[in-house]
Amino acid sequence: MGKNLFVPVTLLCFAIGFFLSFLFSDMGFLRYQEIVKNKTELDTRLRDLAYEISLVEDQISRLTDDKEHLIRLARRELGMMMPGERVIKLLDGEMSYDEQ
């Protein structure tokens, strides 16, 4: 009876070992899933960065080519004004005049 069980038990042990090796080895299925997830995250990040690059390139193009855009940006961001221009600032309902 012992000899009759040796072959099936041996095959079962090999099958279990192969299955565990398939799941948990360095190149196993779980590692493969981790790599696929990482690739998906990197692809998303790459798409986001490509979009940001296009926005920056557009902004650079507008700053170098469009003088009116540059003037609007200087007025809005830096509070600059043209010589002889009057700027009215409204603060909490009060009006004040700045001249240059």
Topology readout:
Elements: H1 2-24, H2 29-65, H3 67-78, E1 86-91, E2 94-99
Antiparallel strand pairs: 1-2
Transmembrane segments: 6-24
Pfam families: DivIC
InterPro entries: FtsL/DivIC
Descriptive notes:
By secondary structure, the protein is of the alpha+beta class. The chain has a domain at 26-79. The chain has three helices and two strands. The protein is rod-shaped. The mean pLDDT is 83.
Decide which structural class fits the backbone: alpha+beta
Beginning-to-end CA distance, first to last residue? 108 Å
Q: What's the arrangement of strands in the largest beta sheet?
A: 1-2
**Quaternary assembly:** single chain
Instruction: From the alpha carbons, calculate the radius of gyration and give it in angstroms.
Output: 35 Å
Number of separate helices: 3
Helix fraction by DSSP (H/I, runs of at least 4): over 70%
Strand content: 5-15%
User: What's the shape?
Assistant: rod-shaped
Total strands: the figure is 2
Major sheet details: 2 strands, antiparallel
The average pLDDT value, as a whole number, equals 83
H/E element sequence: HHHEE
List segments where confidence is low: pLDDT < 50 over at least 5 consecutive residues: none
Short description:
It is built from 3 helices and 2 strands; from the N terminus they run αααββ.
